[in-house]
C-alpha cells in the first residue's frame, strides 16, 4: 500500500506527515492493529524519523494510535463512541481557534484564506472530492495558523 503525502508550503513537515497518516487510518489504508514502525514509515514517506515520531504522538492524542511498551505504536481499534469523543474535543478546540483567529488574523492570512476559498469553490463545481478534502484540511490549517497560538496549533 502506497501512502501519498501532499506537501503544503504553509504546513510544517510534521503536520503534513500527521495529516497523511491520519487520512490513511481514517480511510482504512492503515488497518486497526497494524504496527506503525518509524523507520518503515520514514522510508515510505521519504522523511526522517523525527516527523514520523511527532505525528504518531499526535495521533495517539487523538486516539487513533495506541502505544505499547517495548512494542511501539499500532493503529487503534476505533469504535463509534471513540470517534465521537475525538470529534467533540476537536470541535471545542476548533471553536477556540476560530475565535482567536478572528481577533489575530493578518491581511496576508485573510488573502490566503480567500485564495483557498476560490480553489474550494472550483473543486466543488468540478466534483473533485479527493482534492476538495485536501483543500478543506488546508483551509482549517490556515485558520489554526492565524490563531498565532503554537500550543493550540500543535494540539489541532
From TrEMBL:
UniProt keyword Electron transport, yes or no: no
Family matches, as InterPro entries: AsnC-type_HTH_dom (IPR000485), GntR_C (IPR011711), TF_FadR/GntR_C (IPR008920), Tscrpt_reg_HTH_GntR (IPR000524), WH-like_DNA-bd_sf (IPR036388), WH_DNA-bd_sf (IPR036390)
Pfam family, one: FCD
Keywords: DNA-binding, Transcription, Transcription regulation
Entry superkingdom: Bacteria
Cited CDD domains: WHTH_GntR
Entry keyword annotation includes Zinc-finger: no
SUPFAM superfamilies documented for this protein: GntR ligand-binding domain-like, Winged helix' DNA-binding domain
Domain HTH gntR-type: start-end pairs: 11-78
Entry GO MF terms: DNA-binding transcription factor activity; sequence-specific DNA binding
Protein name (Swiss-Prot/TrEMBL): GntR family transcriptional regulator
Biological source species: Candidatus Blautia merdavium
